[in-house]
Amino acid sequence: MNKQLEQLLVDNPEVYKALNIIALEKQEFKTMSYYTRMINKYMDSSVNGMEVFKQFVEAEIFERKIMYECEEENYRAEVLEKNCENCKQKVLEHEYEDMFMPIYHVDLSKHNENLLSDYFDADSQIVMNDLQKNIGKTIPFVGSGISKTAGLPLWLEMFKIARNSIPKDFLPYFDMEFESKDVDRIIESIKKVHPLISDDKDLKKEIIIPQVKSKVTNDALLNSVMPEILSLGSEYIITTNYDNLLEKTSRILELDYEESRSIDSFQGFESLEDSNYIFHIHGVIDKFDSMVVTNKDYENLYDSEEKKRILAGLINQHSMLFLGFSMNDAYFSNEFGKICDSNRGYCTNYYVMINGDRQKKDELLKTSNVRFINIKAEDFEIKKQYKFMCDYISGNIFIK
Ligand SMILES: [Zn+2]
């Protein structure tokens, strides 16, 4: 591949995106202003589209031609200094326009195919093609792994901070319970040995709220996976997270998902029409009592006929795309099973796992109505994989 093109593809994710979008258009000659408008649309507003396009031309990934007019006929020339075919004057004496056509399709396609096989296994690619077809009726279902890409702790990691205030003698006990990955056991152990926490209310106040409310900068949000999830353009987004990072990101990007909805203050489906929103099925951080944390909260949620009806309404008509969850979390895998059962026969769900193994997948397949996308990642540096996946299923990645 052309070295300069290679550089362009890896240096800046926005340039990469713009190159894909251009390649996805019909391959024909267009004016420079057409491309600069396109680049400006997909890149940060501080970027000068014209400058970027000049880089493209320099990299020789566009073919150039000059169209000029002579006595109401159109002619084509390679250089302005040539003489006109018709009147023999110089081409530059005429009304002319520079036209460009992208010619990097083969290289870009190869680059993208390589990324696809670096980031995902072969099964996942087929599932992603299927998801791409269903994207219009798919709802992202977002867990703590997504907030983690903006710097918040994962769901179970959140309880680790309790360790700082547990007397030394009890640490081995707490560590053992924490290792179980069973949220109830972890919470019980905290209540037993943490001097400031004796009930669920303390737990929310001392452990959960300070961490979920910790300051996340705009830059961190824009560099997280949130913008890509919002850009999938779904009617609404469901989340088990208490934080409002999706709403904040939407505000920064001037998208329409500012509104938080929560299951405990639900006002009927009519109230949801004509608006995009983030639905927090485990409550929101600003409303203490809405938060589903312990097993008891969780049972209350799934035992209530009213709440089950609301959840069913959110889920039945759509495919769920589960992002940022761990199947090691018993709590979630239980909920996951319920949700996948509730839209069985109508929709298929998708679950994105990270470095998942086939055995686990097969176990889940027995009980669930779900297809898997498996991200291959080292050190859980997964932002680029998530971003690529979102672009891919939105149809914004060029592959021949
Ligand atoms: Zn002429």
From TrEMBL:
It comes from Enterococcus dongliensis. InterPro entries: DHS-like_NAD/FAD-binding_dom. Residues 70-97 form a coiled coil. Pfam families: SIR2_2. Keywords: Coiled coil. This is SIR2 family protein.
